[in-house]
Amino acid sequence: MTDRDGIFAGDDPFAITRDWLAEATKEEINDANAMSLSTVDASGMPNARVVLLKDIEDGAFVFYTNFGSAKSQELDFAGKAAFVIHWKSLRRQVRARGLITREDGEKADVYYASRSLKSRLGAWASNQSQPLESRDALERALEEAAEKHGDDPVRPPYWGGFRLVPLELEFWADGDARLHNRFQWRRAAVDAKWEITRLNP
Fold first, then answer.
1. How far are the Cα atoms of 8, 143, 170 from residue 12, in angstroms, in the given order?
2. What is the pTM of this model?
3. CA 116, CA 87: separation in Å to the nearest integer?
4. How far is it, in rounded angstroms, from Cα 23 to Cα 1?
5. Please, where are the H alpha helices in the chain?
6. Nearest CA-CA partner of 142 in 128, 122, 160, 127
7. Per 3-state DSSP, what percentage of the chain is helix, strand, and coil (rounded to 5)?
8. Can you tell me the mean pLDDT for 17-35?
9. Is 97 noted as a catalytic residue in this protein?
10. Which of 14, 38, 153, 171 is the most buried (most CB within 10 A)?
11. Mean pLDDT over all residues of the chain?
């Protein structure tokens, strides 16, 4: 039994995360949905970068990228990943570790279509994570993509999303004298019941 109340109350960790993100969206200067995504490559070397969380489903977190990128190769290789979202304005963070699957169907099409035209064309122009001769070369690739795909480009076959289904989540809030409040949600499998534990700061 835990003594969760206030911002930690509730039986649905995805709902709690949505609530915290909604609060942060009002306070953060930029990109309240920015999260640090951690992966490992085939040699076991870790990697990290900031990506944008684009959806919190009832059981997963969704973000989008180029499937040819280093992060995508690492996600496909391991099938697992972790992320942390830190909101300085709220003095809170959410951490997650879990299983990865691709999102390359209708949902990816809908999100791609919602992006600005330049962003959609940029997905065609950029060979993400690969060596680039110069900024001018990238600008030329963008112009060529505009000429080829026009004002309504379809989603590139190598661009889409990933869905992280967590087996572990942690909700953290700053406390006086660094006596922070931490609640860990863990489950043995995706269909298992969550076990909630208060952790020492």
1. 10, 46, 13
2. 0.93
3. 26
4. 27
5. 13-27, 70-78, 106-114, 117-125, 135-149
6. 122
7. 30, 35, 35
8. 97
9. no
10. 171
11. 96
Choosing from 178, 186, 187, 198, which is the catalytic residue? 178
Beta bridge partners of 46: 40
d(CA 148, CA 124): 10
Which tokens is 41 given?
């490559």
Task: Provide the terminal-to-terminal Cα distance of the chain, rounded to the nearest Å.
Answer: 18
Q: Is 35 helix (H, G, I), strand (E, B) or coil?
A: strand
- The three-class DSSP label of residue 102 is strand
Q: Is the pLDDT of residue 1 over 70?
A: no
Distance of CA 84 to the CA centre of its chain: 9
Q: What are phi and psi of 194, to 5 degrees?
A: -70, 140
What single DSSP character describes residue 42?
T
Q: How far apart are CA 186 and CA 178, in angstroms?
A: 24
